[in-house]
Amino acid sequence: MSKSLFITGTGTDVGKTYVTGLIVKKLREGGRSAAYHKAAMSGNERRPDGSLIPGDALQVKTMSGIEQPLEEMCPYVYETAVSPHLAAKFEGNPVEMDCILDRFDHVCRSYDYITAEGSGGILCPLRFDEQKIQLEDFIKARSLACLMIADAGLGTINAVVLTAEYMKARAMPVKGIIFNHYEPGNPLHEDNRRMCETMTGLKVVACVKEGDTELDIPLELLEELYEENGGTEK
Questions:
Q1: Residues tagged active-site
Q2: Is 233 domain-assigned?
Q3: Tens of pLDDT along 134-166?
Q4: What b/e sequence results for 72-107 when a residue is b if at least 16 CB atoms lie within 10 Å of its CB, and e otherwise?
Q5: 231 pLDDT band (50/70/90 cuts)?
């Protein structure tokens, strides 16, 4: 049975996709059958033929070197750089939960380690009209373990603790934290790491420095963050 991990962030632009690319690369280079999934992504460019390029998926595929076809990675791709629920109001094609789960299950049947990336922070809505679909609905539908990505700099204590407390209250298990843009020896960054661990009870499992091309974590520890899928694989 495949194993999965859901990647969330403390907000937009904390480097969630970049870190996800390093995670998937680590698995692939360790000889693991690795794949990527993102339910919905916004702010994408168009090809000359007018079709949309799933930019985050392309970045992860390029960074990691996985052979998974790009068209398998993301069911919903929007051009407008806003939350998916609002992009769908502008462009049509609103998110359907059955489609997300079917596409995710398809990936799970083909690969052993699936890294599922969220859109924005944990509260980013996927759909908000007559239907309301949140990221946590997808997480709970497949009983996914979660990993939080946070910027190492100013403001991260508040963002990390609030995200952790919300996820705990909503029964979304968080396995740990990865700090991005981390500067070893920076007193603020080192204190943020210590304070976030103390205030959340979560371990900072890795720190990513600017320009890193490898994730500084043992492969065995990374694998332990993944858990068998709790949902239905058809």
A1: 38
A2: no
A3: 999 999 999 999 999 999 999 999 999 999 999
A4: bbbbbbbeeeebbbebbeeeeebbeeeebbebbbeb
A5: low
